[in-house]
Description:
This protein is an alpha/beta fold and 326 residues long. It has two domains: 210 residues, Rossmann fold (3-Layer(aba) Sandwich), CATH 3.40.50; 97 residues, 3-Layer(aba) Sandwich (Rossmann fold). It is 37% helix and 16% strand. It has nine helices and ten strands. The strands form two sheets. Strands 1-2-10-7-8-9 form a six-stranded mixed β-sheet, with helices on both faces. Helix 1 crosses helix 2. The longest helix has 18 residues. The radius of gyration is 19 Å and the shape is globular. Bound molecules: 4'-deoxy-4'-aminopyridoxal-5'-phosphate. The site of 4'-deoxy-4'-aminopyridoxal-5'-phosphate (PMP) has 16 residues, from helix 6. The site of 4'-deoxy-4'-aminopyridoxal-5'-phosphate has 16 residues, from helix 6.
Amino acid sequence: MTDHREPLPSVLETIGETPLVRVHDSPDAVPVYAKLESFNPGASIKDRIGKYMLERMLEDGTLEPGGTVIEPTAGNTGIGIAVAAEQLDVDAVFVVPERFSVEKQQLMRALGADVINTPSEDGMGYAIERAHELSEELDGAVVPQQFSNPLNAEAHYATTAPEIDEALDGAVGAVVAGCGTAGTLMGMAEYFRERDAETHVVAVEPAGSAYREFFGEDVDHEEYKTEGIGTHDIETNELFDPDLVDDVHAIPDRKVHEEMARLAREEGQLVASSAAANSIAAKQVARAIADGTIDAPHDAVVTVFADSSERYLSKGVYRSFEEWTG
Ligand code: PMP
């Protein structure tokens, strides 16, 4: 384990070992804990996969030093990859649908990466296609493709989950996490289900997103403001394994907006919309365990707060609901 108090050779060594903090507004008997991922150097959970995927790909020769990675991303993965790429002598190009946060795109560029925008209405599916096209045009280019790359989930199996397990001394009864690629949830679910097959696993998505289609539900696809989680096309979410998931909670933007404000005001937590959705769902699960509706092998419910609200201030996250969604 890296001791962050010792002098470190590079910023890569500061990735992971983030704090795990109690969410106050959860039942005493079934506490909710959130892993604060904005403590990473690129300020999100995606630093973990940026470092992990690039290091593994350089080790097995999929990627050569001096090569290029081209990744379709909403932004945080781009920042995470860009932080690692510079240190590992790799060039980075990101394909980002326009609607994602301007701050994130500026940070990717500041870290030395190229950013290519695709039309918002064409969705992430088109960004993925474009990344593959570009990689064919460029020698030594590789698309890590976080939506289908098992290394994405493996990064959380190898780092996020064991860190939580150690901090709580094996007392994790339920794992709750919003799904974008689903790498976070799948890596954690696999780890904790191996520890105890009864661990309760809940996926979180914004209302209007289609993850529930994996379970045969009909979903009215609607736009949502909650950023970084959800899908409109489950074909692209290749990592998601419904067998590892007990339930999906769909959280409406309005509740997310309220919870972002509450977390800031009452808990000093400047976290973004996906964290607020996770907080709501994790508390729902904690209450269900407390009242006996759900069985879980231990009392603690864990989730992640993937990034900070500072990255979304220009989107009006702390203004009125109408201003945020308008
Ligand atoms: N929250 C935010 C802010 C994100 O950027 C992402 C990744 N898109 C997630 C949550 C979801 O993480 P994952 O891709 O591992 O499902």
